[in-house]
Design a protein that fits this description.
Layout lengths: L3 E3 L3 H12 L4 E3 L6 E5 L3 H11 L8 E3 L3 H7 L5 H9 L5 E6 L6 H4 L4 E5 L4 H10 L3 E2 L14 H8 L5 E3 L11 E4 L6 E4 L5 H8 L4 E2 L23 E4 L4 H13 L4 E5 L10 E3 L4 H18 L2 E5 L5 H13 L6
Parallel strand pairs: 1-8, 2-8, 4-6, 5-9, 10-11, 12-15, 13-14, 13-15
Antiparallel strand pairs: 2-3, 3-7, 4-7, 5-6, 9-10
The structure holds adenosine monophosphate and magnesium ion.
Magnesium ion (MG) binds next to loops.
Amino acid sequence: MKTQLLQFNDTDLALSGELIRNGKLVAFPTETVYGLGANALDVAAVKSTYAAKGRPGDNPLIVHVYCKQQIYDIAAEVSMAAEKIIDNLMPASITVVLPKRNIVDGCITAGLDTVAIRMPSSAQAREFLSACNVPVTAPSANISGRPSPTTWRRVKEDLDGRISAILCGDACKVGIESTVLDLSGGTPLVLRPGVVTPNQIEEILGMPVTVVTDPKSKVNSPGVRYKHYAPKVPMALDLSGDTQKLTAYYDGLVKQGYNPVLLVERPEKFGSRNAVCIGGNDYEVAQRLFENLRVLESRYDYIVASFSSTTAYAQSILNRLIRSAANNII
Ligand code: AMP
Ligand code: MG
């Protein structure tokens, strides 16, 4: 299959909408990461998403919408809490899990009776979704397990020849995936941390939320079970920011014959060793994280990342880093 590269103009936007309505897969930019769009009302199109990505069939997809009415079209029940989030936060980098209507096929929800819904804030995502004029399922537009793509070039790297088109928009501003908030039961549960923090959600809801990110936890999001965000080379993660410890670890790897790289807050502290800046603040770290991993895996054979921020947002970055490093915390 030839993958068309489409631009952000009226003709190509209309074409991307037409492709989606005709059951094709189109990758598109959002503020979090690039998504792989399919018509949520077309079962064959949705199923082809799993094949294109190599995604396990029991990892449900998020349905993307551009207006609030579409949420009511696919959710069977919108609780008061959900209404507060919809009215006060959306559009935003948050996904809400709600009871689903029958119109939402089980292949989207991996057989669950709930559906995950998101209204992106990025103007380009909204223009695309509005051109589609149907709800659009969209997981990240990468091969399953790889770091998520934050530019259209990274989408091409993974999915060229496997999807109909890539809508070539801007680089993603947030850089990590949305916060997933389950509002289908009595207690609000954060299933995946993101840029919208539990505190912000609690303020809007006026009640406590529980953060459930332990992969072994019974109440969880199917997707958190899988290998995720992994670079092609081994990776270790330090949470102390201790220069001496990192230096010793790096030198040990060199002795073993590796050509490692440090992904750290202050690369200048490591002299002539290979060292790259992870970002000057949490927002920058998140924005560059997946791109950093993809650049470094092509140049070095061992990544040693260090991240010691303890802010609320840092928790979502840590969640990604721990999984990129396959839990190899030093
Ligand atoms: P991705 O598309 O890679 O960003 O992953 C989507 C995330 O949303 C995964 O972690 C899924 O487990 C989660 N998700 C999607 N639908 C549901 C649902 N109905 N209930 C719980 N989690 C969901
Ligand atoms: Mg993904």
